[in-house]
UniProtKB/TrEMBL annotation, chain B:
Transmembrane segments: none
Pfam families registered for this protein in UniProt: CrtC, Lipocalin_9
Designated name of the protein: AttH domain-containing protein
InterPro entries recorded: AttH-like_dom_sf, AttH_dom
Top-level division of the source organism's lineage: Bacteria
AttH domain mapped to chain residues: 71-229
Amino acid sequence: MTRSTRLMGMAALVLAGGVALWFLWPAPQPPAPQAGQNRSDTGPVAAAEQRPGDPQAGRDALLNAPYVSCGIPREVWTRLAPDTDPDNLLPGRTGRNADLPYFLTSHVTETGVEVVANNCLTCHAGHISGELVVGLGNPFVDFTQDARDLVTQSGRFVRGADHVAAWQHWADRIEGIAPYIRTDTVGMNPATNLSWALMAHRDPATMEWSPDPLLDPPPETPVPLRTPPWWWMGKKNAMFYTTIGRGDHARYMLFASLLCADSVEELHEIDAYAADIRAFLESIEPPAFPWEVDTALAAEGEALFNTNCASCHGTYGDDPGYPNRVIALDRIGTDPMYAQTMTDGSLDRFYDWVDRSSHGGTVRAAPAEGYIAPPLDGIWAAAPFLHNGSVPSLEALLNPRLRPRYWMHADPPDYDPEAMGWRFEELDAGKDAAPDRATQARIHDTTRPGYANTGHGYGEALSADARRAILEYLKTL
Amino acid sequence: MRTAVGLGVLGLGAVALAFWGLMSAPPSDAPAPDPMAGLLAQEAPGRPGLAPGWSLDLPADHGAHPDAPSELWHLSAHLEGPDGVPLGVQFNLARLALAAPADPGATPDWMARDLFRGHVILADPARGVMAEERLARAMAGVAGADGDGLRLDGWSLRFAPEAWVLEAGTGDTQIALTLTPARPALAADAEGAPFHGYAFTRMTAQGHLRNGGAELPVRGTAWFEHAWGALPIPGGGAAVVSDRLQLQLDDGTDLSLVRSRRADGGGRATLEGFAIDAAGDVRAIDPETAQVAVTQHWDGAGRRWPVGWSVTLDGLALEVTPVIDAQAHDFMAPLWSGLVRAEGRRDGQPVQGHATLTLDAEGLE
């Protein structure tokens, strides 16, 4: 593991990235739960009005504001990682953040202790074709270590009553969530399970943290999920693969607040700029495909795409449109575990937590038993594909016979512009045959529960030439 | 041939215990700033820290690394006399940078630029436990470390090419050991780690224990390690403290285990470590499968010390028990550190050995 990856991994454990946390604002009277309000139908997703925001202010807040208010004393971080890789510096970071890696944000606590905490970019930014891209779902984020190890490793360097107290605030939270955020494959994002774990520890009305869970915690093993790009948010009427995130999208993004903020008031402070952050996310343009494109072939591909793909994924170019459609499991055929666990009733206590939180009603947890067909803007950069990242390239997505059963990313990561995905090594056996735990964590084993690479077989009926043309067109999106 | 291991395997774990504190822990409710916080500030004056791209260079790396703000050397020996009675010996030396080093070629001055702190522990079931702690500023001939050896007053460890020589003691009791590496150095050179270091986990040791007029021949094995950089220094109220087991089994296995726990008693203890088998193969212990359970306490020196461990990993099951219960030391950072025995089975076959167990006083009842 390279140093930067390891440090990223360590940092990632400080707090999982900034996805999926539905979270509600205090309201005078929470609405009474209604039958069926925590489920959505498959098919079209209706639009929900969003609060307006200032994208520029949102970018500044995303990169600099302390929406995660607990973390490791900065002095300790500096001791563990004295040098910041220049590739991890991001323009637009100000003040104490200017010389921190992009995935950490500094905050001075009320007791005067400067702490650093992972921000949203831990999972929502990454390097591709030599560029650091904000909004890219990080395909190499590593949650396969026990987060409690970082508690120990950092705590050895913490001393002084104020620093110890600041560290304890963070360490207690990590101890509470660690059992639920450990994935078994690098690149998988445990944010959904993290959400449930945090809700289990917090009173929905007051946000007070309870060392012991107040609700039955979620299963310890997160369902494997790949972080989607932020630049799709502007088109989607609901958030996340199952469209569970309904209502005010800005409030769904207050992930960090659930980890650290212990009062409704602190959340209000963050909500004051949450709409700006949402506006920025929706303004993000996907990175352009940085290699050559055969425009004639792409034009052929566009016609094929519009005939074969657009009814679910929308149209692009001069006549853009996006249908916002959730495809039922029995039709799409991709791994059903995620949508099933979201809709089988086993997590309803958390949807109820959302409803009982003081602003229940501005957002709602209502998954559908299926997956939304995503927009395909910047799809070249979104590898690996499907909601569980089980297919390493678009070439393999369109030709199921090429999908590897067992595979791992090339090390170091290397993008293959022809296959439109990360280069990978196909393996003869899965995780069970791995010689050690580190190798095991790198193996995508599609025979494991939740990791199946089945479904979305629409490319199978196309000719090889047609697939090639569609791939070329996808480079232009 | 060297074998590299990563941060957290040799690195953090090893030094966390070997580098004993230079200051007493302040009261937890003290309003004054923690003196250690300033002393251990990242930007030690004139100490730039570690340069990238280090690789082990012996004997030069035996000596002090003035660019590093802190540094430690630790030797543990597991010996026995002619009657088979076990004897534990420890020599520990730590360096802490206080000011910028003197310019090369400058006239020697009296300024305290580095502080050395050391201790010697002799655990002898026949004569009891003898321990002494010393403190000195760096000064030629008094306290220092270079490629030739370590010195603190009359204590010394000389890195002579043919064999190392330890001479140390307390009161009327003196130990003299000749030490020869039986295994290559294990380097902790993970890129980006906050410190560098190396360990000779198995050395042959023989010499004499002199007590008054009596002289007892002793022989056995020893374990030496040295680390420098930004080290977690016990004492001073660290949020996490670590207990350490350095075990040498008769089947040729060396095992380093670090059990870390929050000083406030919260959370879950974590395990790190490595094992070297008889063939010299090194591997990190798997914290998923390795287990340490406390099986015995000793109540003394105002605390309840977890002095007996049950260790389970990879087909190895060991019971670790103290050779002497009362091995607590009232150093500036109090600790229990001494000789323990290990007995158990590996894949059904009996195995035994001796070890040094070191327990941090912080966080104990």
